[in-house]
Recover the amino acids of this structure.
């Protein structure tokens, strides 16, 4: 991530960085945890309060069943 996007700190920029990440989700989560630990260590070192936060469990994508729709008789004749 470049310093321009980092300075913005917006949700759109964060989404772009995560979308552009080339590693696996497991590696991305590990990097997130490392960064979070670094922030917590900084906050504790400067005497600021740290509220523990748990991540939500990832949601599995829903697989949709494909529904076949029969073509109208006129189109069925054209396809033959």
């Amino acid at each position: 991530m470049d310093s321009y996007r980092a300075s913005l700190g917006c949700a759109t920029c964060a989404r772009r960085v995560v979308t552009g990440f080339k590693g696996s989700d497991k590696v991305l989560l590990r990097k997130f945890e490392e960064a979070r630990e670094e922030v917590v260590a900084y906050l504790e070192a400067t005497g600021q309060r740290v509220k523990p936060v748990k991540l939500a469990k990832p949601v599995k994508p829903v697989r949709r069943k494909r529904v076949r729709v029969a073509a109208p008789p006129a189109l069925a004749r054209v396809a033959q």
The mean pLDDT is 76. The two ends are 54 Å apart (CA to CA).
